[in-house]
Amino acid sequence: MSRTSGLRAAAERWAEIDVEHGDEIRRLLADADPATGQLGELFGSRVAFGTAGLRAAMGPGPARMNRLVVRQTTAGLLDWLDPEPIVVIGYDARHHSRRFANDVAAVVLDRGGRALVVDRPAPTPVLALAVLDHGADAGVMITASHNPAADNGYKLYLGDGIQLVQPADAEIAALIDRVAALDPLPAVAGADEDGPLPAGAEDIAAAALARHREVAIAALLTDRRQVNVLYTAMHGVGGAHLLGCFEAAGFPTPSVVDEQFEPDPEFPTAPFPNPEEPGALDLALAAAAASVGTDTPVDVVIANDPDADRLAVAVPDRSGRWSRLTGDEVGALLVDHVLRHRPGHADTGPGARRPVLASSIVSSRFIDRLAEAGGADSVRTLTGFKWVARPIVDRPDDPYLLGYEEALGYCVGDRVRDKDGVSAALVLAELAAGCRDRGGTLRDRLDELAVANGLHTTGQVTVRLDDLDADERERLMAAAVAVDPHELAGVGVVGREDLAEGRHLPPTAGVVLDLADGARVIVRPSGTEPKIKAYLEVVVDGVSAEGIDAARDATNRRLADLAAAVEELLRGR
User: Fold this and answer.
1) Is it the case that residue 36 has pLDDT exceeding 80?
2) Which of 79, 114, 186, 399 could crosslink 175 through cysteines, CB 3.0-4.6 Å?
3) Cβ neighbours around 352 below 10 Å, total
């Protein structure tokens, strides 16, 4: 059978059982000369577990997010779990998220399990915490996090409260394939998008939100509260819950970006609702700048992504210009804060356990220096919080202080075992209040840390592949991780590590390039979106307080030169 014939046969089988998209598939097949490329995109593969679960555009076929994929995935999961499992289910405010969550619940109930549903749009960390609180065997969060409006996803947690990793991911994927072949239409949920939960499912929303608020407040380490915060929910689900947490913790009520506060699955002011994306924070930064001269000038801007697991932070410089701190800068501030204020931080006697600070390999090496100075272990992991949170269970006797990755993900403490943009926002506000009480700012504290530990400046280069077909994307991604330059931006490359060899970490696609001047470049394909990312770091030691501004200017120029060279390398020019 030719590839085209095989794709047509797969599409015809799918059209027979997909009530939602059957007509759309049949129209595609009725084309006199159907585009093999489009058939291949939809039916040539199956959406697979990546850095943060399943994530894809919504549409027909096994390579897209739809009700059949959700049901088949859940049936495969149930085949992997012990009989009569407890599964906690949550969802965000994206198109069809509640419908997909109802489908998950229906399959769980049909297979003899217990379905506990956070039955209102809620932040991802609320679901992650509920998995542990209910002693569940698994947790499913329907979300595509910060992806565009056309996407949705299926984030899967196991009983330890952490997203699944190998070998469980491959084992469950094999069972999903078996379901798709033998029982392609698992239990059909009886509820519509806005209908009630499937009969037998239990709503745990109120208790789960209250419990998360309690845990978020418990993460605070000082009594500093006086700070003026401006908040944007980025059209997501964090807004009301975050404000409730701030109020309960004793902070002044943050002002908000009204245009982005209520959940809206179309993301009208932010087509790419990721606080890292250029322009995503423009409304918030403009509102902060406009507050100057008022009775309550803004001290700090905080932002969540749509499922509120990420945290972005913006502050003014000495000239009053507002800009976002990098994820590494926020990570350094939080690491420094928890090291200085952690309970029992002075306990260094016999038998004392070394606390753990975890970070992904692509995050700044600055954390290594802070950890060494603070008497903690810096543990490096693969990218993704399914790895960053893993020391919590791998080193159960060692206090887990904080995990972070440069992509705006922070996990304060060990109770929520995933990135938590709400808890991190509270701790960041506490930190900013402490700086304000001392007559300084978050940027002032970053300068102090650079003088004491060296100046680490980081940045990224992103090459998007959205407009390419799957074969071309795979070719470019393979070429990216095979790069082996002799020099970059005029500085020799003195070390190269292929991360697929698994020398220090489990094998993964990526390459690390070390430069003669201490700079570092890591290239890897994204695990959640069609793009190649490069992570850059420039390091300067021996910076004085008087010379910090000049040093930052110099490292920013060096970083820009390096970024231009890396982009040229990745685009093959």
Assistant:
1) no
2) 79
3) 12
Q: What is the mean pLDDT of residues 520-524?
A: 95
What local confidence, expressed as pLDDT, does residue 314 receive? 98
> Which residue ranges does the chain devote to CATH 3.30.310?
454-570
Give 309's DSSP letter.
-
- Separation between Cα atoms, residue 332 and residue 66, nearest integer Å: 40
2 in active site? no
363-401 pLDDT, tens digit each: 999 999 999 999 999 999 999 999 999 999 999 999 999
Q: Which CATH architecture fits 454-570?
A: 2-Layer Sandwich (3.30)
- Check residue 150 and give left, alpha or beta (phi > 0: left; psi -120 to 50: alpha): alpha
Nearest alpha carbon to residue 410 among 209, 125, 93: 125
pTM, two decimal places = 0.93
For the domain made up of 45-190+199-206, give the CATH fold: Alpha-D-Glucose-1,6-Bisphosphate; Chain A, domain 3 (3.40.120)
The answer to whether residues 236 and 266 touch, using CB atoms and an 8 Å cutoff, is no
Instruction: Specify the pLDDT at position 4.
Output: 76
**DSSP labels for 394-429?**
HSTTS-EEEEEETTTEEEESSSS-S--HHHHHHHHH
CATH 3.40.120.10 domain locations along the chain: 45-190+199-206, 219-451
Cα pseudo-dihedral 80, 133, 131, 399, rounded to 10: -100
Average pLDDT, the chain: 92
Q: Name the active-site residue from 97, 145, 359, 526.
A: 145
The answer to whether 298 and 307 have CB atoms below 8 angstroms apart is no
Beta-strand pair 400-405/202-203: unpaired
451-486 pLDDT, tens digit per residue, is 999 999 999 999 888 777 777 777 878 888 889 999
Q: Which superfamily does CATH assign the domain made up of 219-451 to?
A: Alpha-D-Glucose-1,6-Bisphosphate, subunit A, domain 3 (3.40.120.10)
The pLDDT assigned to 141 comes to 98
Q: How many CB atoms lie within 10 A of CB 556?
A: 13
Q: Which of 131, 145, 165 is nearest to 385 (CA)?
A: 165
- Which tokens belong to 476? 């470019």
Calculate the alpha carbon distances from 348 to 284, 352, 375, 401 in Å: 43, 6, 8, 16
The answer to whether residues 300 and 229 touch, using CB atoms and an 8 Å cutoff, is yes
Give the torsion sign (CA, 218, 219, 221, 225): negative
Q: What is the pLDDT of residue 33?
A: 56
% pLDDT > 70, the chain: 95
pLDDT at 339: 96
Say how far apart CA 147 and CA 493 lie, in whole Å: 34
Question: Going by DSSP bridges, is the β-strand pair 151-158/114-117 parallel, antiparallel, or unpaired?
Answer: unpaired
* Distance between CA atoms of residues 306 and 263, nearest Å: 8
The CA-CA-CA angle for residues 22, 23, 25, to 5°, reads: 65
- CA distances 44 to 63, 64, 357, Å, are 7, 11, 41
d(CA 410, CA 211) in angstroms, rounded, equals 19
